[in-house]
Amino acid sequence: MKRLLVDTGPLVAILDAGDASHARCTEFMTRERSRLVTTWPVVAEAMYLLGTLAGQIALLARIESGALEIADILDRVGRMTSLMTKYQDVPMDFADASQVAVAEREGVDTIFTLDDDFRVYRLGGRRAFHVVP
Q1: Which of 22, 61, 78, 119 is the residue whose CA sits 20 to 30 A from 16?
Q2: Is there a contact between 38 and 5 (Cβ–Cβ < 8 Å)?
Q3: What pTM was estimated for this model as a whole?
Q4: Rounded to an integer, what distance in angstroms lies between the CA atom of residue 74 and that of residue 70?
């Protein structure tokens, strides 16, 4: 099954019916047939932005059930440092760096995000990501 990296914005939007992007992101997920993958820095951001215990528990339930896979990033710390330095003018935060580093390692070029910064990031001199939705 194809793997799709998912960023903070869609995670929050899917779990928070009051989010402005809720309908767009949930509709996208009804069509998407990929395995959702993210990183712990993205989860931490989402937990903060969800703000409610109910939303946070819902996110953890998706991880526990396997509906959301957490990619290991320990082998990518040096690369994340390099990326954050390279894209400091954008700026690239830790969560974004973790996503790009995992994408490089796993050959993923599509990300489910609401963040246009991913259109700037590059992999091997080419545009790094096809951003959806």
Answers
A1: 119
A2: yes
A3: 0.90
A4: 12
